[in-house]
Fold these 4 entries.
Entry 1:
Amino acid sequence: MTDYSKLLNPEQCAAATAGDGPLLVLAAAGTGKTRTLVYRLSYLIEKGVDPSRIILLTFTNRAAQEMLDRARKVVGEVANLAWSGTFHSICARFLRKWGSAIGIKPSFKIIDEDDQKKLIAEVIKSNVAKPGDFVKKEIALKIISEAANDMLDVGRVADRWMTKTAGIDHDEFVKVANAYSVRKSELGVLDFDDLLVACHKLLKEKEHIRKIIADNFLYVLVDEYQDTNALQAEITDIIAAGHRNIMAVGDDFQCIYTWRGARIENILDFPDRWEKCAIIKLERNYRSRAGILDVANSVMRDAPVRFEKHLKAMLSAGDKPRIYRVQDGKDQAQQVLKLINEARACGYANRDIAILYRSHFQSIDVEKAVSTAKIPYRLTSGIGFFEKQHVKDVLAFMRLIIHPDDELSFLRLVQLLNGVGEAGAKKAWAKIGRRLELNSQSSLLEVGDFLNAKARPAWKNIAEAFSRGLKHIEEDDPAGQIILDFLDAFYEQYLHLEWESEEAQDRLADIKELASDISDETMSLDDYLENAALMTNLDIRKNDPSLDRITLSTIHQAKGMEWPCVIIPWLSEGMFPSAKAEDEGRLDEERRLFYVAVTRAKERLSMLSARMRRMPEGGEFPVEASKFLKEMPKNLVNIFQIASSRSFYPNSGFSRSSHGGYNNSSYNKGYGNFKTTWRR
């Protein structure tokens, strides 16, 4: 037998070599959970357990493969005999072998998202009297998926999704959902959710098969248990019920996906569901400097519902994390550039640096700043702010105000209207002489005569927005007012009709941030639109793995990753935590999200908070520092007050000072000159 005590710390070793019975391993950030799972698998095989009677459930195929690869280095090729994979892939294997018991042929095909959209579109067309008035196919699929994963009636979930602007007929939706299920059955196909639903049905309804599976698997290992949804947790419980040798590894502090079905109750209630459950805590952190962990521990100190854990640093203290109080978003972006350049001057590569933000719309100033500075970067979403569909829709409207003969912008805008396709849009463009007559309201309204009847009411509203836009330009109003009028006249309602409420609100936030940004610019509207077009064609962020690039990412997309240098902007009230999350009583998850962001940092952590937020219609308003910063003991961080060197803010309550900053007693309190003290 391998001497695991020499390979693992005491807590990891206790988990890897634990005896039989249920075990919850609370693996805090950076404490070696993957290493523990690998050696648990290796230990069981070395102990003589048939590897084909061990099942390892993960959330990504990459994680499953990595664990098997590492286990092979300990016990050899026999590790490959273990059942290892994602919940979906394991369920697919079960269904190939035993699915015929519930009418599923072993030859079933798994359809992807594109195939799902085609299929639901076909079903809607065949079962709905007015398909054009039915909810968007993407929304229909989301509702069906949510019902499946939450183990709820689809009609009940549909009722939850009803909004004033995108009503859902209960009976009609249930009819479509049932027809979609029947059609998949006729074609012999399953979608991803069906794999879990059908496997659960197999295990619940067919006792003899449930017994075969439960008896076969002596040991069940589950990774990232805090991310399981209701269906995944119940499937796992059924598989492990035979021998009760289940090891769930996870961290309640890192449960940040409840918005897509994860249930934090699964991990919090685990000891209650499994009698005589042992609990082992992994708290020794091998990733981050002690100063960063001090901040992480302070973040979770006030979390109301949690397992008690305290990260213990295995690395030296390093420098204290830093908080920068800056004037506004643009000054914040400039400070981010300074931090990037400082890190690079100290020997860090671009790939060592990550900028993590709460929401996509918070990236606009930083993305523009690093682009202008020609710093290579990658976006984890792969889509830049100005490349987003909804941002491009709004920019098309703006371009037509400046360039009424812009055919591509006209075609894009008109095809947003109900029932207008490419051919119809091109025909209308030709009929109006390939140019919008913006100075004539009657001419603008006549465009509707060349569109179908369904599109005319919306076009009338857009025509009014064009007229208002011209007036704003004539009166030299902030350009963001033009966007707000377009939202009021048409686009906000369009978003709610096309997307479910959460997605529509996220897109609306992006557009309002665009309005704020464009109002704050000193350049002309034409120059702004040209720069936006250039931003969509930048070579500096091509997804070439050989490029040395900094990372721009939302915190959700950064989970599971780490960087030597992490920068977190917009730690201001209403931004992080988000106002919406606070209004909906989801502050606990916002706290966990901040904890995840902090624990991505290995050596340097910089947190920025702006005092002012731009308004879409122009101007700024004051905002307080995030409550997460206020709760942080001041002895854990170095705080820098950074004065703005930009133009005067007449309505901000600050007056211009000789040093380029602003005189205000609270603003300059604790002000200190920035010095480069961090070294690699």
Note: Residues 647-680 have pLDDT under 50 and may be disordered.
Entry 2:
Amino acid sequence: MLSVSNVSKTYAGRTLFSGVSFHINRGEKIGLIGPNGAGKSTLFSLLLRETTPDDGQVTMEKGLDFGFLPQESAPVDDMTVLELATSHVHEHSRWEAEPKAKRILKGLAFRESDFDRNARTLSGGWVMRAHLARLLVQEPDLLLLDEPTNHLDLESLIWFQEYLQGYPGAILMISHDREFLNALTDAILEISHSKITRYRGNYDDYVREKAAREQQMLGAFENQQREIAKMQQWADRFKAKANFASRAQDKLKMIDRMEKLEGPATAAKTVKFRFPQPPRSGQRVMTLKGLEFGYNDTPIYQGLDFEVERGQRSVLVGPNGAGKSTLLKLLAGALTPKGGKRDLGHNVKLGYFAQYRGDVLNMKHTVLQSAMDLPSRPGENLCRTLLGSFLFHGDDVFKPVGVLSGGEKSRLALVRLLLDPPNFLLMDEPTTHLDMGSIDALIGALEDYEGTLVFISHDVHFIRAMAKSVIHISGGVLTPYAGDYQYFLDKTKATSAREALTANLTNSQPGAASSSKREFSPPKSKEQKRLEAEARNARSKARKDLDQNVAKIDAELAALDKRKLEVVAALQDPATYSDTVKFRALSEELQKLESTIVKQTAAWEKAAEELERAVAAEAS
């Protein structure tokens, strides 16, 4: 469906691509990877025909339908969320698209009350979700997604991942999320040293195949170099001797004619750093005692007791809305509790890496001003040196922070931590916007970090590398697991490493104590407890039955939508017109499909409303 042939592209005097070729076939799901600045976004621009190659060509099937989600921002007109989600659908199909759009918006965590909101009132992240919904409703032949998971919470990410597994079109996605790429891709395109190399399988397959290829290339290169050295040595030894001069010249000609193998490419330039070791803190780093906090009239924590000890490395996990980021902000002092005490331990110096980098960066500062604007007042030379190691070179340091990409803001926030190193580090989604090389560099730096670390992440690779203990949060209750992430998975019998991050677990840890005090109530009789348990079980069963029904109808609708696309494509094929019987059969099938979709959509909406009521009743 799309072919890139011998394409070369130079930008700002630097060669991004040189003679690259690859194909994208219908239905393929391909991951596009490479270090920052390798040319991933430029490749998207070439495919979208926003820029043209210096040499070579990009060809595609006639009428190929594209959909593109940029990494950072997309324009919003004066329209509601639902109107935005259906804005690229033909007018005569709008009535069919709305129910589909509502299902997708709900999957991306929009509430029904959001559907009629003006999209311009949304934050940047929610605008990107609305645009993502628009693309999924539009269902183009080829989706180009630039870091699509950056703006999603974990539950929405899991829904989105499952939705894309059944997507009928082709997908080319830029992503640094190994778990996401492993779940979805059947091929990887790697941009490195101005070349694009295709690997079969998902990201783990790519890692294995690349290592094997590099080992083979190294062996062949070294063998050839040894052979060349022997021939050169023989020629140098005998070229001055009359009887052997002609044979020596033959050896040199053989060397010149030999097709030289390239040596293994050097690693692409990426961030390399280590945290300066901070001063040692006391054993008790932070203590929360009887903490009370909520938003408006909604309590989040009541009587929260929590203690962080020196050297602790804990990841906070739990369902969306459980209060993970709220707890991190309470620890950081970014939120003021309504009651209780927050005590910072002896000689503790706190650093907070916020999920939204704008919370800790002044958008009006230049990069250099942001680096220098710290309590430690680092000098300009030190700041420039460190910024250079984080890929801010030359005049980059004079860029306003507000124009930086997400990855650049993340790197700048890390620079500020290094210039004023804390011994108690709080990090909220630290890998967002970082490329894989930068994530690995961050892991390496944190492995040597001697301070205390509490963090939130949906990057399973990062969690496995960093967490020595897990704290599950649900309903204002903190349950500690005194082991790494695999220990947590084993103890909770989780079926998925990613879904366990949002699990709404009970206190299954032996000896785990509630971290929030409960209001006093008199003891209940056995009969009362039995009746309450039966009522809970009945509500739970009803909710589960409704949940299964909604999922069943949703799957049926997805299958109907897919078949409808196939029938429409067949009817648009000129060859179908010459087969009257086939054309009539397809036309009749299309009518039946459209009628069934309308009925099933109505059934889905009714079932979804019943499920919402059941969930609310179960929670009350």
Note: Confidence is low (pLDDT under 50) at residues 507-523.
Entry 3:
Amino acid sequence: MSILSKYRTHNCGELRINHTGKQIILSGWIHKKRDHGNLLFLDLRDHYGITQCVIEKSASLFSTVEKTKLETVITVEGEVHKRTNDTINKEINTGEVEVKIKNINILSIPKELPLPVFLDEDYSEELRLKYRFLDLRRKKIHKNITLRSEVISFIRKKMEELGFSEYQTPILTSSSPEGARDFLVPSRINQGKFYALPQAPQQFKQLIMISGFDKYFQIAPCFRDEDARADRSPGEFYQLDIEMSFVEQKDVFNVVEPVLYEVFKNFSKNMKISNYPFKRFTYKEAMLRFGTDKPDLRNPIKIYDVTEVFSRDDVKLEIFKKLIKTNSIVRCIVAKNVSDKPRSFFDNLDKGAKNEGASGLGYIILDKSDPKSLGKGPIAKFFSNEALKTLMDKTESEKGDALFFVCDLKKNVEKFSNWARTKIAEELNLIDENSYEFCWITDYPMYEYDEVQKKIIFSHNPFSMPQVPIEKVDETNPLDILAFQYDIVCNGIELSSGAIRNHLPDLMYKLFKIAGYSKDDVDKKFSGMINALSYGAPPHGGIAPGIDRIVMLLAKEKNIREVTMFPLNQNAQDLMMNAPSDVSETQLKELGIKVVKKIN
């Protein structure tokens, strides 16, 4: 749509063949310049795109345009011309036309640039974040941030179509004793006390349900004092926060699946997307089949438990047998059709496993070239033919395949078998980069045993509903109690955790008691929640898919900072705004705070 002002009648992505002959005004940044002798071309860029402008050497303004630096902000007046067929640029929307410059007005002159804007090359994170306003002008990251905005707008519309209403929850709240570290905000009026920035609107969205609202959502900011990772920003992130009343687990799934499907369908081209209902795996099943509760289903490699086979009398691998007697287990990772791979393929995997902290990666090659032998490799000689046949049956393998083995305690064997599954798939180029594969992980354990604290702790969200009725809690082994908790995963990335909430105060007291909390502890630390639940609460549940991770997947980026407008660096610093920073003694005095300098 044309814009009529002294700065522009059109934007730089708007002009087409039908504008030929029109007098127009454009404003933007000089993206590139090309001197062709008698003609000087410049690409003018704004948020919407690029338009090629041209001026003849004979023009009175030629020397002005020639001297003007890249990233100078200008207004151009001129006439739209059709390009000749051999000069059409099919890479841009305005590529069939150009603007013959009649007048130019310089609006802002830049200093020397610390990084060029017209290139999408990699530069150091420190440089990019210090000059983020320049980095954001670059095509790829500008496109990523625009995509983020469009995704959020699309999600809002879908949620409203489904009957959800958006409500805002507080940013200043109380510190949470569970979860990650809080960001604390000192109170001036109540000196010596602190607010916390919310790690998530968890308790507030439950309170909204208790207040009688039925379907809530929010594009919610969340704050956690965590170390940076590729898929997690330090400091803050955003999530699609959802809560619903009078629902079971399946009702949450029925809302989330079409929303995610439509988002990925709408914003990805030539990509295969899981049809819903999405595949579902219990936590126990996922840890066996994939070695992780964040499985990448694009990877076809399977993992099998073969502990029983290694315990047989006709298997003479004594080191494994000794480990099995001390509670270790054996998992097998099957690689299909690799028997003709060079020895280095197998040895490098073994070496890689050791670098990851494993004791090694034993393997048997099911050699299809030798009809007399079932298997070869470092440990094949320890197996009878009958034991090898049993292994092949149990792992659905055949000649030409290779079997890789990990033997360790359950926690370690899951970690290393997941690493091996992923590494083998990468080496064999088995992962389909043109697909999005979703799945649910369900039935998480309510508790786990903490080896450091030597006590039972919550393994997930402590406010979740257990799959054991209240009258059976006391007579059930805590480590056998499952919860109505679930994760949604895409391509090996956890997009969100969710749960059906515990809405019964008496049940909550019982569950927290198992984790070492007294009734007074619960009343003190969760006073707002437990008090509200005692006045009549509906069964309710929800989930909160991460906006940053959704956009990261859609943009095919490996690092979440590529889809965040102003991220902190890995040390949780804003290099552009110099945060965190020192504050004045006056400010500290108002807050009743004294800073104690760290002694090295």
Note: Residues 139-161 form the longest helix (23 residues).
Entry 4:
Amino acid sequence: MTTEPFTTESQRHRENHSFVFLYASVTLWLMVVVAYPVQAQQIHFADITAKAGIRFTHNNGAFGKKWLPETMGPGCAFIDYDNDGYPDILLINGEDWPGHPHGGATTLKLYHNNGNGTFTDVTQKSGLAIPMYGTGVAIGDYDNDGYDDIFITALGQSHLFHNNGNGTFTDVTKDAGMWGANEFSTSAAWVDYDRDGKLDLVVANYVQWTEQTDIYCTLDGTHKSYCTPESYKGTSVRLWRNLGGGKFEDVTQKAGLGDPTSKSLGITILDANGDGWPDILIANDTQPNKLYINKKNGTFEERGVNAGIAFSEDGVARAGMGVDAADYDRSGHPSVIITNFANQMVSLYHNEGNGLFVDVAPQSEVGRATLLTLGFGCFFFDYDNDGWEDIFVADGHIENAIDKVQKRVSYAEPPHLFRNLGGGKFEEVTAKMGKAFEAPKVARGAAYADIDNDGFLDILLSTNAGPAYLFHNEDGSNRSLRLKLVGTKSNRDGIGAVVRVTSGADKQTKMLRSGSSYLSQSELVLTFGLGTHTVADAIEIEWPSGQVDRLANVKSQQTLTVEEGKGVVGVRPYKPSLKLAK
């Protein structure tokens, strides 16, 4: 298979539009005052993990045999499970291998947000203290009862937990019809792919691995190392259709997603072609990435190669890990970031708006800065509220002795934070964010949320066989507006809704999505940075049902709850920043 067809198409596209290049450049220059980010602020991310009461260490079960699942690390999530307006924290955990106990029983951890910068461990009383070799998580209200539920991916049996609305959860995996799918599952995402108002679930699966089939691999010819996925057979993603009444049906084959060659780690949902229907992008490890276009009849068509998103520029299937999508350049089209292995750099696929994606990372600071690091969790978010989507990448290698064979590559690695400068340009600002933030880690999952209702997004980070980190966003001065969606004809969370916010000459577009990043889930609230604007002139919400709601002259510095068909049903002004690090 070659990349010539879509490379040629990309070149032809550029040639056909070369006559507008000069005009576009002049236009952008003239708009620089109103359309480019405001001056950078002195923001930093303070490590408040200990002060917040987060005490967690991931258990990957490692005991010296170097079994493949030990490298994957845990996911993490924000979930407002009790609807108090403050996002709570969910940390996924593994367990000891059978016959090889070494640290005592471990389970995932649920921490309740107390609203003052601290959290309380409520795992036991929540009913979530169930042992499993957990990997990832997706959050969504699958039964539309107003309380978000939890799906935990695992090595073996994944689990669906129903939120009972009283601070407890019930494992309903068997009742839901999901029992028996014993796989090496990784990321997951809720998506109403058929737009019937009920959330369906897509689950990524990695490779066919068991303790008995573990393969001996070595880096130095002497000692066992972790194998690459190329050593194992792939397996298909799985699509669960929500039948209502708490029941799900496996429609993977029927929907056209069955592909046993995939080795999937990341999932993001996006409307790749702008037709109003959710498409599915799968990041594959050493196999081509898959872009499943929704055909609006319950089936999908895979177009990764035609879209230019399957391979690198030179036609190589890279080691895709995490993935996210966003309209980072205000073109109105969602572009894509995919993290890859060391020596491969991050992919930044720009959506050309004609069905084609072009990887612009090699010409960007995003590519140059990530060549040697191994990325996992990643997401677009506007950390400084200037109205432009920035990029965060969590890094960490899988082999603790990698520096012995690759001197320029390390096991623990600093993260990457890229500030969006507008015009398709990014600047790495990691070193400006504080020593704790910049410190090397063996990071895996990553998610964001505003933990203290100050209007700025904070970061949750998980590490492999190590602690979790909570970083508080401090010293920002730009304004923002946050939207919590409540669907009626659409799913209750409003997942899949597209929101457009206009402030002066600035226009932003965001989709509310489940999943993305790597094994992780960010909060189900949309944050729009407004820079120095005090008002959003116009807000348009296009719900999955097709309903369109509009708001005008909305003040900044508040979180609005917007109900489909009704408009604003709740207003919550921001609090002053708690300065949690002080």
Note: The chain has nine helices and 38 strands.
